[in-house]
Amino acid sequence: MAIDHPHRRTRLSALLLVALWSLAESKYIAYNTTQRIVADKLNVHIVAHTHDDVGWLKTVDQYYVGSNNSIQGACVQNVLDSIIPSLLADKNRRFIYVEQAFFQRWWRQQSDEIKNTVKELLSSGQLEFINGGMCMHDEAAVHYIDMIDQTTLGHRFIKQEFGIIPRIGWQIDPFGHSAVQAYLLSAEVGFDALYFFRIDYQDLAKRKDLKSLEVIWRASKSLGLSADIFTGIFPKNYEPPPGGFYFEVNDDSPVIQDDPLLFDYNVQERVDDFVAAALSQANITRANHIMFTMGTDFKYQYANSWFRQLDKFIHYVNKAARQLEFFTERNSSGYTTDSLADALAIAQHHDAVTGTEKQHVANDYAKRLSIGYSEAEKLVGASLACLTEPISRPGCYNMTTKFEQCPLLNISYCPPSEVDLSRGKKLIVLVYNSLGWKRNDIIRIPVISESIVHDSDGNEIESQLLPLADATINLRSHHVKAYLGISPSITPKFWLIFAVSVPPLGFNTYFVSSTKGKGSVASVSTFYSSEESKKSNIEVGKGKLKLLYNVKDGTLTHYLNSRSLVKASMEQTYSYYAGDSGSGSDPQASGAYIFRPNGTFPIKPEKKTPTTIVRGSILDEVHQQINPWIYQVSRVYKDKEHAEVEFTVGPIPVDDEIGKELVTKITTGMATNKTFYTDSNGRDFIKRVRDYRSDWEFQVNQPVAGNYYPVRDYRSDWEFQVNQPVAGNYYPINLGIYMQDDSTEFSVLVDRSVGGSSILDGQIELMLHRRLLYDDGRGVGEALNETVCVDGECAGLTVQGKFYVKIDPLGEGSRWRRTFGQEIYSPLLVAFSKEDGGNWTGSHTANFSAMDPSYSLPDNVALITLQALEDGNVLLRLAHLYEVGEHKDLSAMAYVELKKMFPVRKIGNIIEMNLSANQEKAAVEKKRLKWKTEGSSGVETIARGAPVDPSKLVVELAPMEIRTFMIKFDYITFAKIGDS
Amino acid sequence: MAIDHPHRRTRLSALLLVALWSLAESKYIAYNTTQRIVADKLNVHIVAHTHDDVGWLKTVDQYYVGSNNSIQGACVQNVLDSIIPSLLADKNRRFIYVEQAFFQRWWRQQSDEIKNTVKELLSSGQLEFINGGMCMHDEAAVHYIDMIDQTTLGHRFIKQEFGIIPRIGWQIDPFGHSAVQAYLLSAEVGFDALYFFRIDYQDLAKRKDLKSLEVIWRASKSLGLSADIFTGIFPKNYEPPPGGFYFEVNDDSPVIQDDPLLFDYNVQERVDDFVAAALSQANITRANHIMFTMGTDFKYQYANSWFRQLDKFIHYVNKAARQLEFFTERNSSGYTTDSLADALAIAQHHDAVTGTEKQHVANDYAKRLSIGYSEAEKLVGASLACLTEPISRPGCYNMTTKFEQCPLLNISYCPPSEVDLSRGKKLIVLVYNSLGWKRNDIIRIPVISESIVHDSDGNEIESQLLPLADATINLRSHHVKAYLGISPSITPKFWLIFAVSVPPLGFNTYFVSSTKGKGSVASVSTFYSSEESKKSNIEVGKGKLKLLYNVKDGTLTHYLNSRSLVKASMEQTYSYYAGDSGSGSDPQASGAYIFRPNGTFPIKPEKKTPTTIVRGSILDEVHQQINPWIYQVSRVYKDKEHAEVEFTVGPIPVDDEIGKELVTKITTGMATNKTFYTDSNGRDFIKRVRDYRSDWEFQVNQPVAGNYYPVRDYRSDWEFQVNQPVAGNYYPINLGIYMQDDSTEFSVLVDRSVGGSSILDGQIELMLHRRLLYDDGRGVGEALNETVCVDGECAGLTVQGKFYVKIDPLGEGSRWRRTFGQEIYSPLLVAFSKEDGGNWTGSHTANFSAMDPSYSLPDNVALITLQALEDGNVLLRLAHLYEVGEHKDLSAMAYVELKKMFPVRKIGNIIEMNLSANQEKAAVEKKRLKWKTEGSSGVETIARGAPVDPSKLVVELAPMEIRTFMIKFDYITFAKIGDS
């Protein structure tokens, strides 16, 4: 909840953000894995190996090619294929290979090129043959002549093909060991040593105790010391030491995460694990050398997955403590280049914003956004300071002004504004507008005492003090604790509410000071639902819009606009859908992916809870505790013609073991004929017909040969069968939903993505919150049951959001939807500073617009991107906000005068780009594929803005057109461009 | 059973085997994966891709580094790391990558070298960025400006870093698709096409029906056709088509096995699968182009595992049927270079010969041995023919003689000898001896009528006809059917038994002809166990050895040797151990790895079954049906002083749901003081003390610093605790087991590896067969319950084997154990041909020795290897067979005169090698590490043979010494060297 939904963010235009996006510095780490022996230290010999049984659960050929993996996942071809590039990648990497039966199969399939590479790797010792027989023979059930023969077969091949002689016996898996193996198949073969595992458990215990796992094995009475062989017995097995050192593809062991730009950096922990494992083994060896057998049966199928980790262990364990400290201090240093842009980009992923991720992943997204927000906040603060600082500080060095923001303002937590202004101190409130038109809006900030507001000219402006409701205070303290881990020491007393006016692409500054008894505190009246109330309706709203509420039960009854003369009956109620558990007749549970209701249950307002009406000079509010877990504030502003509803929902109770999906329904008397409209990603509005699906027109009888493609367009429908009367008619809502009758259109805009529909004519519903108890079986493996924990106590998630309601005369709704919709998406940015005693306005820029003071973007155009790129170019993206035919005036061609948009800069060069700005528009047009389509003549008049004339620099925008430009200014210095 | 145990094979010396071992011809296949479009055919576009969610079940960074794999096995770093070498390996390989959030993380960690490589791959189009935003954004819950921003962030990076512009929209996983995505984020971005999956199921069904999965999507009312976008909707999902086309590491899909040298070649089947999948998809597209999306979530962690298969599909599907036929006919062509040597080498693996493999793997080993045997048999046949052919056929071309062998001779199946010899035809029996000393032995072959035998001089030699027992005939017909799939049409009537005498490293030839009434048919007498029998003992054996049997119950009672005057009581009985089920108080089941008996149960011979005594001129036999599933033949040869016991055991009944492990126990009255001896891999005999373990002597109190290593030698013991009184005293027996008392030693030799022990003083036991019903939990996951199936009816496995029993005066046993032990390991090779009417001996070489006629290897030396290598060298390995002190005379230094061993060849060069012949012995000695050992003075007199004087060419062999030589003959032609 504290982290706003991704799209609720301040658009950071070029004026503030010079280079938010930048490629992080190259983080290639050349791991130092040089081999070395240090006399007085414990030396760990890392032996990278695979143990490839020449037949066991699968046949030798099945193991080789990797068939029959259902029995055992194992493919020796993978091992041998992958080891080559892994060794080539770093000359310090070494690997031993044992079973020649597999190697020979592989060898004969290789190209000369690979063969030469292998020869080089063998020659350099990076690849080494150990044991070297065709298999790792048994030592109990085999005759010595067969042992000799199979070893000779392997050894001769290795000698002839590579001129190499294996030096080490390696009998790590046979189920016991014979004297003949030691003196004959090891010493007489000429091995330097024999290593084995599998030994009687009592023998092993005693040898560990006596540090006798390494012995000279004198196995022949007849040949005596002439056939001695150094023998090493592994202390536990032939696997990596305990402590999580398995690195096969998909293995569970913690990998070394040593990239400080990523989360979960863990070098110190893993180094500690490694050292602990080494010390544990050191206790049972005589010398200061121990071996880590890094591998086991059929491992290294992707050798790189092991070497990547082994390299890191060697590299980091060999460093001095000092370097490790550097790395572990990274968290406290706060250094990161993950930006808000990155975080936002990632959050657009189809398992992120949708909620189909696991909870810990959702937390990770929130963390990224929070970090990104925090990074951006610093940058914004610095940029604002730079823009307001005196001209005498060129380059924005040594700025004295600091601006802070309040990301938790939505829950009334804002330390910069919750300050004592008693001794003449003033709070500076800078309000920035990233849109290309002038905006008037209402700001609300929490204050601790009665306050008044002045503009930068020193005039007091209208303000309203609104006592903080208990519900708000509870929410605030609970969630500040939950998200920040602190308990706020101060509780603000009022919301200070005031109107601001901000120029396009610019800011204005306001000054808050304390006052005793002079503040305009709103009146608060509370009534309880009562059958006996005298007056049947209460009117709320001081301006043109009025809402009527029924005194009897506190419900909304009518929507009235005295200017447009719209008068409509309007009810608003809450209901929940019981989430299907999937265990009844319908096996499909409702969950993260699937909305599968099992019944609708209206929520009746509880009679004992009061309705509180707050009336003030700027706005009226209606506070309603619908039930213990739904709190709603409806707002009617004196100068706005839409109503705003702020809902706080949660924790949704699930004591009855039923998941619930909460909706609000707004019901009018409109005859909407199954039809409603929802936005497509906040852009187009798409017509929706209940129980029908708008789709394409089939020309079923025409030939279907490859020359003509069917067209799927926005117009035509085909009938389909609705099996889920509610879920089947639900649509995503990012911007809004509306419906029409003969004379009016009823629009609801949202501040976040929700689901919505019109299940009944004249009614719009929005799904505001979901809490479900069953996984819906589509992969996430968790129920959508989000909780927030404070001091170890967890409760279901509470969400707070807003929607906006307006009824217009038919044909007039689009202007509000488009203009206000854009403003919802790009809210004013509010930053705080303190006046440091002197005359702030005298030494700072208090209001500013990047655009010509006389200029504003047309009503039907939004500035959606203005971003300085690191190469000095500026990316400009302008969007026409209206579709063809959407509005009688505003659906026309729009014109943007760039010279007025950038009055103090000279555009040296302007190139129109494709949407994602990675190629010139002209190039796209040139190579655009022309498709023959069924039933289309190819002749259609489509409006598009003409190319920009570099001398005029006027951008034409046709309906729904978005145009992207790369602009090179002749000189570009955003630091100081003077007041507007 | 038909496949003999690995070590039961004929040693194939250089005389017969010129180049059994050879490296298979290079089988590198350059796959032709060139891209091409064929107009009139269905073109399948293989799109190798991975779908990497930017957070879902794991966080974005967890997915990147591959942590938290317990939640989901996924590591994008693996994907991006592994794709590089995979693409470099073949320029026809192509890969698309989508999510820039991951790519950017990876990119900044790369070295300049990798970066340059990636740039080249991008430039060539092998690697292609698709979609190109930071993530594959959602299309329902996101605002269009956020979609633009995140796409721009990715596209700008790609443009700046690589100068590249993504061409394709790829929204394959979002849960629905918006008009804005189509016209704005695809067409306006400049994409050529948009591909997506996830679409309403009714919509999908209709589109498939109407072939409208590919459409021109006109999504903007305002921009009309100017924002058309070609849109492809996947027909099923974004995964590979159905039919097993997943090739991630450890995936189950059948890989294309196209190496004809390996088993399970399946190119045709997999090509068929691919074509079927393509045709299925073709039915729902308009043009003759379809796309296979080869990949899915987080795949290509080891990219090569996919490309290896994709390459093969492209290669083989693009070929003409003709080539495929070639490959599929491979099985019938019988072509393979897998040799017996390879198969034997593989069978030495510690999960092969041990029986710890799964049953299907055991079958694979058997198949390999069978093929190897068959290959070797052909080679042996040809070599023998060459050696016997007239000198007039130089180079062994156009040989008229054919020699066959009988691998199933052990179950009396030998078609070459089961022939009608009635009309003067003669069966030629060639007997080859691969050892270096002359051998006299008894041969037995099945014949269909009374027959006699002549030697090559035309003299009739002693023979004996032995009627085939019913048990033998039943076993024969059942197992010929089981292993060869045929029912023998002829049933032989007799075993023809005759004595042969074969020179060292040579052969002799015998001629079998038919005779009526003149054959020496053995007498057969049968008696039933009876309390009333008059005579208490029956004596068996015509020579120095006699066995006495008790008439009352048919049991063996005494062993008598009239030469050595050994007279010993001897009983032989059968018992079984009940296999622990692991479900009682002991959780450990008896199984493949673990012998865990749960009680011993003696098997009492059933009284109703008869004992049959067969007496003949060469040997006597005692046939005993011990119980319905144990049949035993004891043999006493006139000219041998050991008894031979042939056991046929099985199917072991398990109707009582108890697994059984069958042992035979031979009990004498010897006072053996817990001590017995077992061989180590058929080489040394190791002293075993019951309930003790012979091990090393600890010098516990001496310093354990790294300078001195403890010695583990053959001498000393330390006490250990026996928790399993039977299993804990079991040892592997490959050659034999013996025990001693004050005056005698009792030896048992075996023809295969078995387990054995002496659980009671004076008693030796051998485990002959095991049938168990529970997996013992050590990995194989199957109970050791082997079955043989005939016509769909399966029964427990029947095994047939032999052991040999001898009692010698103390100090004399080793000679028999060593000499006869070597003969058991290297039995005479018997090959058959037919006399083609003429005088065969006149035109062929009938007897031959490679050695000087006057020469034989010393009794204490065995020739264990004589092998011609492909480089013209000959590998010679000689083994001293006795340990120090093992025999009063034979433990002395032995001398081998190479000049007499190779009388007609001149040794040009002789180099002593290490045991596995991959380096010179001198080099081994030079680099041999010298270890300081605890408690050893380092002065010890060890006998070793001196270096070979090239002028004398006498090889000295000290006790237990094996010496390996590489010999270069001045001229080497094995083809024809004249008669001996």
TrEMBL record, chains A, B:
Gene Ontology terms describing biological process: mannose metabolic process
Reaction(s) catalysed by this chain's protein: Hydrolysis of terminal, non-reducing alpha-D-mannose residues in alpha-D-mannosides
Assigned protein family: Belongs to the glycosyl hydrolase 38 family.
One family name in Pfam for this protein: Laman-like_dom
Cofactor(s) this protein requires: Zn(2+)
Gene3D superfamilies membership: 2.60.40.1360, Glycoside hydrolase 38, N terminal domain, Glycoside hydrolase family 38, central domain, Golgi alpha-mannosidase II, Golgi alpha-mannosidase II, domain 4
InterPro entries: Gal_mutarotase_sf_dom, GH38_C, Glyco_hydro/deAcase_b/a-brl, Glyco_hydro_38_C, Glyco_hydro_38_cen, Glyco_hydro_38_cen_sf, Glyco_hydro_38_N, Glyco_hydro_38_N_sf
Enzyme Commission number, as recorded: 3.2.1.24
Keywords: Disulfide bond, Glycoprotein, Glycosidase, Hydrolase, Metal-binding, Signal, Zinc
GO molecular function: alpha-mannosidase activity; carbohydrate binding; metal ion binding
Descriptive protein name: alpha-mannosidase
Glycoside hydrolase family 38 central domain mapped to chain residues: 303-369
Signal peptide (from-to): 1-26
